[in-house]
Design brief:
This protein has 342 residues and is α/β, with parallel strands linked by helices. 41% of the residues lie in helices and 12% in strands. It has 13 helices and nine strands. The protein is globular and about 50 Å long.
Amino acid sequence: MTYPVFDMHCDTADRLAWQFLSDDLKQACGMDFYGPGDADDPQGCRSLAQSHCHISLEKIGATPWAQCFACYVPDALTPAQAAAFYDAVNAHLDAEVATNAAVVLPVTSAAQVREVLEGAGEPHVAAVRTIENARMFAADLGLVERYAARGVLMASLSWNAAGPLASGHDTHEHLSELGRDALAEMERNRIVLDVSHLNDECYTDVAAASSRPIVASHSNSRAVCPHKRNLTDDQFARIRDCGGVVGLNYCDKFLSTKVLEGHATNVSFDEIAAHVEHWLDLGGENVVALGGDLDGASVPSLLDGTDKMGAFQQLLEQRFGATITAKLCYGNALAFFERASH
């Protein structure tokens, strides 16, 4: 059986748009290309339809699929540069979606996502707008409302470094006053707060300040693999209790202690399943989701591309059964965004 997919995070939009960025933005980011192998095959990482990237419409095939296309904003960019960067990345994604309109629909609501995932025809791919490291809000809080009007459903306030709004796991800075204002504007405009990449201090701050459900779009269990990007049990429980969801990240160093410590080069299904099992033990049946971080991380061979999803779903079904597999692959994420829209 093939299940629909609702994946809560990827970096594909950046990877496809990177060659079309202005020279000053590429120089500020310090990269001419985004992903491994892109410099050797520039033509092969521009098109949403077909590419050597983890995610393409060709690799998705006929599977009903909702993909959160994050605009990942590098820490090196100023807030003003971040706004220009966001416009450039999304302009390219807009063009690719329009070119493939028979297959992919740019959605602005959870209701549209359900129609795509559970419909019987075309388009069968939903493109969901999200932001990773929304530091542009520090330049203009009015962007929150404008982005929400364009269909942005979720955003995080930092990446790994200290930022103007919040700070990532490379630091111990707290949520800034401007970050509190941005969070309040996001909640007013129904943009979901994504806590992936926040350090523990900022997580505690936003958990106390938020009045709506929060999510970790692409984070794993720190009890299973002790990377500081992963969630503690208490952090997971806070998301569970507020009605949020947590997306399983495919990054090998977030999944496997052996890989994290340099004792292995690949991740087994058992190591992946251990995160799901731990979350289920914590009462997370309605919390677990997918947040692959595809095109943004080194991932296990069994998840190295969306064309591997069918085989992965079979392994999930054998281990967890059909009900849990359906919730993990799409049901929990879809139900969350439907709740978050009210």
